[in-house]
Every structure is written in structure tokens, then in C-alpha cells.
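Reviewer has doubts. Consider these C-alpha cells.
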Amino acid sequence: MDFLPVSVLGSTGSIGTQTLDVCRRLGIPVVALCANKSIDLLEAQAREFQPLLVAVTDKTAGETLKMRLSDTPCRVIIGEEAAQEAAALPQAGVVVTAMVGTSGLLPTMAAIREGKRIALSNKETLVCAGSLVMAAAKEHGAEIIPVDSEHSAIFQSMDNKAGIRPTGLKLTASGGPFRGMSWDEVRLLPPERALKHPNWSMGAKVTIDSASMMNKGLELIEAMHLFQMKPESIEILVHPQSIVHSAVEYADGSVIAELGVPDMRLPIQYALTYPERMVCPVQPLKLAQLGSLTFESPNLNTFRCLGLAMKAAGQGMSACCVMNAANEIAVGLYLKGQLTFGGIYETVAAVMERLSKHQAGSLEDVLALDREARREAAAVSAVG
């Protein structure tokens, strides 16, 4: 079959490389690649896929790559706005937004304004500016297909053709490496412990967010916007086996779920080939061998960051933007050994207390509030 050509933003990260695995196997054309600094891998990707455009947001790395690829037909562009050009490339039918953090917001909006299909992996885009993003998608006829396994599961479980609205969503979480532990046990644990996720292979930032369960809070906010649900209609369930990826509940009490082995190639491929389903080389799901599937409510005393995200979800877009920005700074400091695991929560809570009442009504407001929250988080962490 003919596939829509793909632009991959964040091509050297975990989701980006797995996206290219899917493209390689199915023969999906790749017309643009975008990364920040990982130019060795980006060069290899460019030479293999021969895209029309290669975007590098870091200027020094970009100049180096431009020289390296001078013997290829690839056009190399450099700088912060390069990602937006890769997102809006006319030849791209699908834009995979796998950039980390709020760096993905402007490129995603650029793709939306061109009416692209967005294979959305950058959850921070909706966390920080969900109402603005969804309104723009409606205005420009852009299609948003989620790549996160949980949101893909919800998307697949909804009866979109019938137009029947669910009454609730059940968002599952593995519980990460610290499931079953107390706050006192986890608050001083080093990054190497937090990075040992039991089920999923992800980038460092997402893995730390999984350990704190902030990731699930971000996903709750993302689900609110993607599926137009109130936060109180979304239940978070800890499901250690990571087999039930999420579920949808309807007025008659029926609950429809999507199950599968924990492999990100499944939701990535579905976003690229929707509405078609293609063979995917993942392990078949054998429920009898699993024996049992378990579910429990999250411990909000241990996973305090999840509580902060749930609070922000009820307060609105500005609080969500502040919370996300502060968390990005705090996680970065934790990974560098400059903050404790418990310090992530303390930093985010302090910044939310100071800035969450600020109002952001436009994309420019969101970006300004994001910058302010980052400065505040750095200052709070330095004092702490």
C-alpha cells in the first residue's frame, strides 16, 4: 500500500529511532529528520533514508553535520526554527513529534497549521497549551493520532464512527521502579535506581517521570485535551504487567480496553498507518502464560508528583504549564546529581505555589510563562 511520507522530529531519541525502525520495515518514505546534537546517529539516519531535509537545532552540531553530509542530496538547515521547517515541509504527510519537552510545542503547531497528521509523542505540547493546540487542529483540519501507548489504547478503544462519547477513561500505569515503596524509601534514591524501569525502554527524562509518576499526571492532562474529558472522569490505575494499556468506559457500564505486549512499535506503527493495521514483529500476547493481571490505586503519598499534576489539571492551562516547566528543570538537575529525587517534588510544588495563578491565554503567553517557571525552578533548586 502507499504510505504518507513522514517527517520525524526527535529522530535520534527512543521514539524517533523506533519510528524509523517501523519506516524501514514497511518501506514508509522519510522526507525529513530533526535532532538536536546527536549528529553521529543523525548522519547515519540521513545516509540510510536520504530525506529531503535534515534539521539540527544546535548550531555547532548543525555546522558539523552540514559538512559531513555535503556529499549527499540532503538539505541541512540549522537553528531553533529548523524544527518548525521540518514539521511544515510540504512533502510530509505525517509529522512524528518525538522531541522532548516544550521544545516540541512550536514545531507541532507549525505542522498543525499545515493540516498535517500529527503522530503525537510529545505530551508536553498538550500539557502546556492543550486548549490552544486542539483549537488550532480543528481550525486547520489537522489529525492528531496519539503515539503514547496509553492514549493510543484509548484512541483504539473509542467507537469514533458511532460518535458515542465515553463516560470515563481508565489510564494505566506500570508503577515504575518504585512501586510499593514509601516516600522515605524513595526520596533520596539516586538516578541510576530511578532509571531502571521494569517494563519499558524510554529516554532518561521520561523514565524519571515514570519513577515519580509525574509521567502519568502529564498523560492525564494530555488525555483531557485529546478526548475532551474532565479530570475527574479519568481514573489512574497501577497495572504492573503493562498489558492493559488503557480502557474506555461507556454509559452502559461496558469497559473496552486495548491489550498488548509492552512494545512502542505497536502504537507508533498504528499512528503511521491508521486506519490500516499491518503485521508488526512483536511478541504475540499469550494471556494464559501471564496467569493474572492486577490493578491498584496509586499511592499519592509516595508519588507526590502525580498529586501535583492532578492538582494542576483541575486548575487549568497556566498551572499545567508551570508544573511541566518546573518538572523539566528539576528532573534535569536530578539526573546531574544536583537535586534529590524528593527535591523534584519540592521544587515543582514551590514553583506552582508562586506562579500557577498567572494567566496564559495565547501561545506567546504560554512560552513566556514556561520561561519564567524554568527560571523560578532553577532559583528554587539553587536555594534548596
The longest helix spans residues 363-383.
